[in-house]
Automatic annotation (TrEMBL):
<keyword id="KW-0223">Dioxygenase</keyword>
<dbReference type="GO" id="GO:0005506">
    <property type="term" value="F:iron ion binding"/>
</dbReference>
<dbReference type="Pfam" id="PF05721">
    <property type="entry name" value="PhyH"/>
</dbReference>
<dbReference type="InterPro" id="IPR008775">
    <property type="entry name" value="Phytyl_CoA_dOase-like"/>
</dbReference>
<dbReference type="GO" id="GO:0016706">
    <property type="term" value="F:2-oxoglutarate-dependent dioxygenase activity"/>
</dbReference>
<protein>
    <submittedName>
        <fullName>Phytanoyl-CoA dioxygenase</fullName>
    </submittedName>
</protein>
<keyword id="KW-0560">Oxidoreductase</keyword>
Amino acid sequence: MESRLKNKLRRFYRIIKFRMGNKPLDFEEDTLPWIDRSDADIDSFVRQFETPKNFPYDLGKLLRDWRDQGCVILENALPVEWLDGLWQEADEVVDNNEKYSVKSLVYQFNDGKETPVKDVPKEKLKGVGSRLLDYHNSSVGAKKILTHPHLATFLQAVFNERTAVFQSTIFKYGSQQGMHQDFPWVVLKIASHLVAAWIPLEDVSPDAGPVVYYQGSHRLPKFNFGDGILFSGHDVVFTPADFSRYLEKICARNGIEKTVLLLKKGDAMFWHAALVHSGSRINKPELTRKSLVCHYSTVRSYPKHRFEECEKSLASRHNDITIYANPTNLAEEDIMTAGKDWK
């Protein structure tokens, strides 16, 4: 009891000391992707950018939405038969998990540690909070989906430099995550060089715990954990719960209301590194929200796989997007091959 009180007092002292010297923080201007900079000229960029003839969207409008709202939805971007095939693959991995070393993260089972699926009880893999991690490394089809020309064109326009895809997850049920932004947790050399994508693998029901996002919130002042805008986890002043409360308050203060995202299978949503979003509560436990989520960055900011100990990772290019092989599981790279036949 005494040590707990001392810890509370120590934290209270650190918070007071921090707030007395607190200064607003943000991404450094000279590190920003071109579109986030104050002098970004979207019209000039679009005139010079080589947009594929079969790109079915207004690139200028997409880029303006990205700049102003921090998110973009591409409707009917992906073949639904590809998405169905991907989920069939994921089901195979879960149903026969003893055969695979694909990494998983199962909340309330392995305490946030990445664990091979063969070491996780099947009933846990099928439950709420279970995710397959970096599934694109094992799946030819997932690589095709995440680098589809419609997605690749938009990403190349946003970054305007070589792009890499990384840290994908595939899951069955809504995440029910609290309000957050991605950049404090996804470690990159350049924090602002981050785009997240959510691809629903089925039509989303409002009772299945849909994604909630806050348009324009990417422009709000960044939260300072006490040693910067990134959560180091070591000796920080504030906790993830403090971060979530800050986001809730600052969105309310700026009149930014939540938008519930009810996408259809075949759609894709991109959001900015600093867009505030969350996973809402699952109202009907029997409903699923099958999803594929991943992150993109520049090769300059993410030059190799996060588990790679050498200077460079084995890499392949798909529609000019770089994918690094997982050095901890090379034996299962592209082991799921159904996607080879997708046209």
